[in-house]
Amino acid sequence: MLAFLRFEGRRIFGERKNLVFLGFIALSSAYLAWSGLNEYRSFLEGKKAFINFEKEKTSQISTYAQYGAFGFRLLVEASPLSLFFVNCSVVQDLESNIDNFEAIRVESSFKGNKLFMKRGYFKDFAGVVFVFGSLLMLYLGHLALVSPAYVRFMIQRMSLGKFCFLTTLARLFWLNLFFLALAASLYFLIRLTGVAFSIADRRTFLLYLAFLILLLDFFYLLGQMTTVLVRFRKVTFFWFFVVWFVCVFLLPEISRISVFNRSQALDSAEKVNLEKFRNLMAMEKQFGDYLKVNPSTPLDQVRQMQKKFAIQFINSSFLVNTALETRYLREVEEVIAGHERQSVLFPTTFYHFLTGEASGKGYYGYIAFMGYIMKLRSRFIQFYLKKRYEESDPPMESFVKLEENVFRSPSRPPKSYWWGFWATVMYGSAIAILTFRRLRRLVYLP
Description:
The protein is mainly alpha-helical. It has helices at residues 2-13, 16-60, 64-70, 125-143, 148-154, 160-192, 199-229, 236-263, 269-293, 299-315, 317-343, 347-358, 363-390, 417-443, and strands spanning 72-78, 94-98, 106-108, 406-409. Helix 4 packs antiparallel against helix 8, helix 7 (199-229) packs parallel to helix 14 and helix 9 runs antiparallel to helix 10 (299-315).
């Protein structure tokens, strides 16, 4: 085994073109990780300004009627691990406004420097190792066997099975070591800049790395299989690019289109908002009709009626509207769950889903954010109604305590992580078996 390790190490790192490609991947990864770090730092600066602005805005409001209308903004803060997955996020720079209106608004800002943060295809560490790492592994998988004559020469000293196993194991050892060392180096360099990763972040990053190595090994085996299936002919490189393009670009795009088509079955958000608005207006109409019938009602009695209708709103219309929003969110979650199950079917589609969730701004990060909005909004509405209708001329008080208006979206692996992991293992095993059987026929042909 040591002899194979030394031999394959020289074959991989002794070739200038291999070193150029490996160097390109390393430098690109480092640059994009540093770019992600700068973007994360920029977000933290913007977060401070956001919190100060919201405090200043609330301090300028003089009545609870104004406070209910203006409300306060809610910001999403992703895990610092997101700097490795800048371009993998499903949602970008989300904000919401919590007020006394029934429509829940979730939007992204494009003001200032955010206008220029256009996402490229691999504008992060996870993207560059996926796109170029997969291409490199396909190529080096092809070079492992060279030709049937080379294989016949090598099996004069050992069995074909032993030769294939040791060659594959030795080459993958060096290649996996390179990508692991690259990822670990960037991780610790980022930590030296003062970025702190939680235990959950570290666990997610380790799980991501495990799947990344497995995915790259899958491409290496795919390169071997492609070479053997086309019988080492010169058209091999054409088929390399076909296989690479289908796996890296086409299948993930088909998966994206598929989930979009399934989402068309969902009701539009405006339809849900309209239904909630009608429920609210029905309550307002009851109060307006009461005042029309009793135009000379004393002011104290009007306030009592306002209090009564506020309590009635909390116990009826507000609960109905919350149930509508919850049901709609569950329907969205069902579409996401279907997309997750579909992504498990192929390694590259699952990689896209995994990196989105690892960024903290994936589909389930969005679901968690919406759940937080609904809980916070429920508390705010009760606070607002109590201050405005139950208390007599209370002093202005901010609902937001500490940093409640910042939602911290954690980095997490998807629930189907191990399904995707073992599915990729099965793909790799099937490819290795098919390659060996095909190679045995080529080598032993008369």
